[in-house]
Write a structure and sequence with these properties.
The protein is an alpha+beta fold. Helices cover 19% and strands 32% of the residues. It contains three helices and twelve strands; from the N terminus they run αββββββααββββββ. The N and C termini lie far apart (122 Å).
Length: 232
């Protein structure tokens, strides 16, 4: 009597075929991870953007005063597809405090024409101007043009018409109010900001020279070189 059980022949996947399947699976999985990572990178890269144009820096030693007042201005647009906050303005590497920012982001006033305008320097507040407009501090930018509704001159607000001194419904005056923090902009929104550069960063001797101005919204933004203009 045969004491050994007869074994059946069983088919098995060959070692070569097993290796090939593992290799193909690894390539497919790796490709998927790469494509997913690339997609995330592209989405992140395309989701934020800030466009800055029309940047000016003006220096002015007001008649009868020893202090040099320096102002700048810029047009800012959210060119990305998510809300961003403009949180830094730097001049020569020095951060401008929010209290020195005066901006308008109202779409009824920041029209296409105003946004493309050559921004005006209206002069720093004279003694007569400060007498007429109680509370206005030395070095404040003077108002110019017709006042928009509800935009009174004060220590924290002034208005500027970029096109003329009269009322102009097509190109309304901007109402530039003091910032208390970052400027929030939805995708496609625009803002025009005037900013006072703290004393000691620039002076009259810098007129005609190049200065760096950088405007950032988080990690988005870049410095640009601007010629310092002398104004009387």
């Amino acid at each position: 009597m045969n004491m050994f059980l007869r074994t059946k022949n069983r088919k098995a996947i060959s070692a070569v075929l097993t290796t090939l399947i593992i290799l193909v699976a690894s390539v497919v999985l790796g490709t998927g991870v790469v494509l997913y990572g690339t997609s995330l990178f592209q989405t992140g890269a395309q989701s934020s953007g800030v466009a800055v144009q029309g940047v000016h820096v003006w220096t002015n030693a007001t008649s009868g005063m020893t202090t040099t007042y320096v102002w700048g201005a810029a047009e800012i647009r959210n060119s990305g597809d998510k809300i961003l906050s403009v949180d830094q303005i730097n001049v020569r590497g020095n951060q401008i405090p929010f209290a020195n920012w005066f901006y308008d982001s109202n779409s009824a006033r920041v029209t296409a024409a105003n946004f493309q305008a050559q921004l005006n320097y209206t002069g720093t507040a004279t003694s007569a101007y400060r007498t007429t407009n109680s509370g206005v501090l030395s070095g404040m930018m003077q108002a110019y043009g017709a006042a928009p509704t509800g935009c009174a001159i004060s220590a924290t607000q002034f208005y500027v018409n970029e096109f003329g001194s009269g009322a102009n419904p097509t190109n309304p005056s901007l109402c530039l109010a003091q910032a208390s923090g970052p400027i929030s902009l939805k995708p496609g929104d625009k803002a025009i900001v005037y900013f006072q550069v703290p004393t000691g960063i620039l002076s009259t001797v810098d007129a005609g020279s190049q200065s760096s101005v950088a405007i950032y919204a988080g990690s988005v933004g870049a410095p640009q070189s601007v010629t310092v203009e002398s104004k009387s």
